[in-house]
Amino acid sequence: MTDKRLLGYLQRILNARVYDVAIESPLERANKLSARLGNQVWLKREDTQPVHSFKLRGAYNKMSRLSSAELARGVVCASAGNHAQGVALSARQLGCQAVVVMPVTTPKLKSDAVRDLGAQIVLHGDSYSDAYSHALELEQQHGYVFVHPFDDPDVIAGQGTIGMEILRQHQHPIHAVFVAIGGGGLISGVAAYIKAVRPEIKVIGVQMGDSDAMIQSIDAGSVVPLHDVGLFSDGTAVKVVGTETFRLTRELVDGFVSVDTDAVCAAIKDAFEDTRSILEPAGAMGIAGMKQYIAQHGLQGERLVAITCGANMNFDRLRFVAERAEAGEEREALLAVTIPEQRGSFKRLCQTIGQRNVTEFSYRISDEREAHVLVGLAISSRGELPEIQQSLATEGFAALDLKDDELAKEHLRYMVGGRSRLVGNERLYRFEFPERPGALVRFLSSMHPSWNISLFHYRNQGADYGRILVGIQVPDEELQAFADFIDTLGYRYADETANPVYHLFLR
């Protein structure tokens, strides 16, 4: 980019009107992340804005420059949620009507927030691009002023004030700033300011692997529209990047990182542990990309900034995030282990695992020769997995790594079970026991050798007490001995043998 064009964006950013509605968000050191990654990690907390996202900066900078006649016509925009909130808040501040077109996939938390700010909501399509097309139709039909979420110089300049604040707040050397990319407005503005003022600082873009329109466009040398996009990170689910944002990104951004869902879930957890805030997926992408960049380049002792650009997370998504965070951090191994279907094999499997923390066990008797057990184990690093697999192989247990198997992670782990023709004399019990290493082995070691485990399900829920569901084949003449056994364990339990759900789905 020519110095004159870069100077033009610098002037736009310095003169941007954002602080009528936005705050100067804090730049905070992430102490736990810094210690773990061996670098000084700083988080630019745009999640602390009044609408929990950076988007109000660009929206207000654009709308505050409209004439009285344009404001009287009203504005329309397309958004998956955060830009919509910025437009709605800006419209309320400026006293104009706002119509917001949102994909039907938009989290309810975001659509409710827009409605609460007084905007009219129109739900249309499955992605931002679908909503965008409909918003353009409404612009033509009703004469609204269209407020683009990213491909507008005034919007880009508004987002660029984040770069201005970072350099003012941290005047020491910075190796790189990591920025999530959807349509490219945020990274265009941040890169324009940083490259004009401190060009030695690297600006690194981060995209989801299933929504990487900018990366593909940069590689191709022209804007490449995607046929579809992933929806986990709804804030960056953009099929076509902007013409102006593509130009700025191609000329100013130093590199790109592509991250997956598990890595973003892990980054959400990282941010929570340092800030006690819960970021939305797009808001955590900068952290995920930074971690991946550190690993790829072997960085040590550098100052790094990640922009946490949003925190509009639906509560009901947290279960999924928690499940996938450990895999993303490579703290959990998920294995399909095959063992002989004979008494004692299950106990021997647990003994082989030893004192490793078990996160999940799922098993249902189904074959007279082999048993297939879904096993989750806490690990310290991915390099520990071959050692575990070798230990299992030594005992004659084949172990299939399921880390990259989406079928297993999204569905199979919740579906292991079902009816079996081999479950005569089965009793079904729920147990609660103190959540500590070795508890499962103790349980199994106490059992009479003639009692066969025919069903087992356990999932570590992060609580002080673990919960397991066990099916045990006990001959009628040994029921009293079995009752004495479970009483001596000292665990809370419930007999579910007569539960109608058990008979409908498992018996």
Automatic annotation (TrEMBL):
<dbReference type="Pfam" id="PF00585">
    <property type="entry name" value="Thr_dehydrat_C"/>
</dbReference>
<dbReference type="InterPro" id="IPR000634">
    <property type="entry name" value="Ser/Thr_deHydtase_PyrdxlP-BS"/>
</dbReference>
<comment type="similarity">
    <text>Belongs to the serine/threonine dehydratase family.</text>
</comment>
<keyword id="KW-0663">Pyridoxal phosphate</keyword>
<dbReference type="Pfam" id="PF00291">
    <property type="entry name" value="PALP"/>
</dbReference>
<dbReference type="InterPro" id="IPR036052">
    <property type="entry name" value="TrpB-like_PALP_sf"/>
</dbReference>
<dbReference type="GO" id="GO:0030170">
    <property type="term" value="F:pyridoxal phosphate binding"/>
</dbReference>
<keyword id="KW-0028">Amino-acid biosynthesis</keyword>
<dbReference type="InterPro" id="IPR001721">
    <property type="entry name" value="TD_ACT-like"/>
</dbReference>
<feature type="domain" description="ACT-like">
    <location>
        <begin position="333"/>
        <end position="404"/>
    </location>
</feature>
<dbReference type="GO" id="GO:0003941">
    <property type="term" value="F:L-serine ammonia-lyase activity"/>
</dbReference>
<keyword id="KW-0100">Branched-chain amino acid biosynthesis</keyword>
<protein>
    <recommendedName>
        <fullName>L-threonine dehydratase</fullName>
        <ecNumber>4.3.1.19</ecNumber>
    </recommendedName>
</protein>
<dbReference type="GO" id="GO:0006567">
    <property type="term" value="P:L-threonine catabolic process"/>
</dbReference>
<dbReference type="InterPro" id="IPR005787">
    <property type="entry name" value="Thr_deHydtase_biosynth"/>
</dbReference>
<feature type="domain" description="ACT-like">
    <location>
        <begin position="427"/>
        <end position="498"/>
    </location>
</feature>
<dbReference type="GO" id="GO:0006565">
    <property type="term" value="P:L-serine catabolic process"/>
</dbReference>
<comment type="subunit">
    <text>Homotetramer.</text>
</comment>
<dbReference type="GO" id="GO:0004794">
    <property type="term" value="F:threonine deaminase activity"/>
</dbReference>
<dbReference type="InterPro" id="IPR001926">
    <property type="entry name" value="TrpB-like_PALP"/>
</dbReference>
<dbReference type="InterPro" id="IPR045865">
    <property type="entry name" value="ACT-like_dom_sf"/>
</dbReference>
<dbReference type="InterPro" id="IPR050147">
    <property type="entry name" value="Ser/Thr_Dehydratase"/>
</dbReference>
<keyword id="KW-0677">Repeat</keyword>
<dbReference type="GO" id="GO:0009097">
    <property type="term" value="P:isoleucine biosynthetic process"/>
</dbReference>
<keyword id="KW-0412">Isoleucine biosynthesis</keyword>
<comment type="function">
    <text>Catalyzes the anaerobic formation of alpha-ketobutyrate and ammonia from threonine in a two-step reaction. The first step involved a dehydration of threonine and a production of enamine intermediates (aminocrotonate), which tautomerizes to its imine form (iminobutyrate). Both intermediates are unstable and short-lived. The second step is the nonenzymatic hydrolysis of the enamine/imine intermediates to form 2-ketobutyrate and free ammonia. In the low water environment of the cell, the second step is accelerated by RidA.</text>
</comment>
<comment type="pathway">
    <text>Amino-acid biosynthesis; L-isoleucine biosynthesis; 2-oxobutanoate from L-threonine: step 1/1.</text>
</comment>
<dbReference type="InterPro" id="IPR038110">
    <property type="entry name" value="TD_ACT-like_sf"/>
</dbReference>
<keyword id="KW-0456">Lyase</keyword>
